[in-house]
Batch of 3 targets.
Target 1
Amino acid sequence: MGILEILKYYLYFLVVFFAVVGSYQEVMAKSSHINTAIRHYFGLTFFVEYTVADPNNLNSFEDEVAICDYQVVTPKIFFQEYVSKYRPCLFKNYGRQWPAYEKWTNESYLKEMAGEEIIYAEQQKDNRFAYFTEGAKRAYLTYGEFLDKFKEPNRKFHYYYSFEDPPGPLKNDIVNPPIMDSIFKYTQVTFWQGYGTLTKPHTDAMENMMCVFEGYKNFSIVAPHERKYVYAGYEGVPDNYSPVEFVNPDYDKWPDFKKAHLRTVHIAPGDCLYLPAYYWHQVGSSPGVSIGVATWYKTHHQAADFMQFAMQKHIV
């Protein structure tokens, strides 16, 4: 191959390379033509939000999150009616078929099986939990000590276990939700235990099935494409967090939040909530002890997943 042929292929490569880079920058830059058009025509702020919403049905919301019967909803129905349409779904009693539902309400069992396991938990002076808040710390202690913290009448700190698998043998008491495994690629499981906790409103980049086994959880949710109404990233919080209190919003401070379609889902013991990736949610737990397990999966919406990954890795 002569020098001219090599130069020709090199030029072809450069043209394709810069075309791809240019297109990518156009998609990712918030001030680009495509994102300006999306803001104008669809009321969205960013192309990522457009990819995880149905552009033909952006303003159509049901008043309540759908209730799904796990004995009736097949993987095909689940995919067609919920996953592909980006709709949350509450599976009533789905978690009752797993050993955790019967066993985890017994503290003696929890201590016997995993009391000596070393865990690390979030530590806060109040029950509001987010890793970036002032005073947030992580404490290492045994799981038995963690359970005893809930009984201290004048405790100086609140604790929340939310980082990893169920401790020790307790992981044998759960299984991955079969309906999720039939569609998505499994990523990880996280164990959530606390006492009257309340998270900061945020989004996650994975599909989630949250099953509750003791106490209850209330999810206050807003669809991804309503990002501008939740004031994402305001007041110095990370871009995937909102400073608005979904459970008790200050409309004088955050007037556009009135435009958000806020829905609340109550997850009772044995229930499981399917929450699509990038949904805004604030989670409040029962005043007493609550235990839940979140099973995470790679998102079905691959374009959004790829771009979210690129942003997280600072590629763009």
Target 2
Amino acid sequence: MPRFSLKRAIALWLVLSVALVALLIRESPTLAYTPFASIEIQPRAGRPIHLPNRIFDCTQGAAQWQCSAALAEQPLDLTWSYSPAFPAELGDCGATYAGRTVSCREAGMDFVRGLQYRYTLQGDLELSAAQLNGLRWHYWGINLLMSLRDLGLIGLGLGLSLAGGVLVALGAWRSPGRWAKGIASFACGMGMAMLVANYFGRVLLETVYGVGISDDQWQWLTHGLAIAAGIGTWISTAALLYFPFGPVMRLIVSLLAGVSLFSLLAQSPGAYLLSFMGIPVGSGSFGSHLPIFLASGAAWLAAFWLYRRRPINTRRFLSFAGGMGVFAIGSLLALMGLLWLGYVD
């Protein structure tokens, strides 16, 4: 791929990624103050029309929630009663549109901000087909995202992460300079930080209490150790890429980089990409062990390239570690973002 085309591809990837993140944030169910997970209109014919939570203005009374929004210049009002002792458990949904009673039914539940329910407004709300289509197009963002469902959104995040990793790998192969070294060494640092956080995070609290450390103190200590280990691995890997080390130190740093990349790849949601390729990754199947085998082989191959200090091996390491690092970190951020914004649970 010509250098200019690669730069344009990276720019296009950045634009698409930023646009998708902006759309996800704008339509997020969790960023709106509502007692429900989602509201949709189910016409008598056709697909449901999803309404974004951000259009509802909700107030919480002593024993009742009231939410209102304007649809086709007419008010949509929703009410739920609840017991003050159990405010999260809503009673039956009551709905009116333009002063007329509308059937409002529970349609499932999500763990958006804890347990919250989805609701469906049955019927056309006495709106014409053109008005219903106008609502669908007016709120195209939430309807597009909801049509993808959980797996579609996860697949989209993994696909963008994979595309970013491929572009970074190509860029590092073409220009194995400062940016390529920075991305590859940062990926190693992230992997080591995740390894330390995961290991110490599994220590039983009974063990921590036995040495006089509280839960909060142990959390701070775990995070501090993870950050320190990650920064140390980041710096040592970058130093090995810039300066000549002796064989012993080169071996130690290369092994640390290999362990870090294994941790990063093994803990990233990129393993779900195998399920989209039709390979089962559930427990008890060969596919459940395949991500570990692939991560192990890839990490030790990268460590070998880093240890064998030759220009071609350095180029291979930068391209491989940078590309896989962007894919692993990107897929992890994508899944965390979808969880935090309330699109998957």
Target 3
Amino acid sequence: MSSQDSDKGVPCIECQCKDCQCHCHCSGATGDELPPPDERWYSVVVGRSPGVVQGQDHAERNWRGVSGGAAFYCPDRPSAEQHFVSALHRGEAVHVIPEVRIRLGSQDRATLPGFRVHDPYSPENATWVVVSVGREPGIYLIDSSYSGYGLTLTSNVNGVSGGHVIKFKSRSAAVEEFERMLSVSLIVRVVTEVRAVLMSDGVE
């Protein structure tokens, strides 16, 4: 994950120089230096809000922390617009909504799997699991009916950073532990990163 800015010592889009160290795309050609950071133009191709952005800090907030985030320094706004439109046509512009983690509390109990009206409450002695960190935290009965929850145990936590499952031999033990964790905000719902390739319809 990197910005294609000459400040980072990587090739800029104009001259592909690799060691210009804070000099602009023309360094070695005209000798011009980069404009002040807040006056620079960028084409953010992969980020939270892809598009043409002015200001280095603004661009970095857009792509930094995003998987595969990319922003390209351009000498002026028209160049940035041209670069971004080209990226759109190539199918390279991607809108990324980073992972969101929501800590749940006791007030959420009735809405969670294992506590809703239609969820299984028996048998007492069986394999019950607490998903404390996952896409749908809750208490689940592990048997042939698990698919009725809409998620397999694997898909609930797979790809989730810190995904956590605890097994119990009785529902009462699972409920006790889940409610304890819920009361101290240790139950976390994770909305994993969403990526959408932007379309170039109507863009020339």
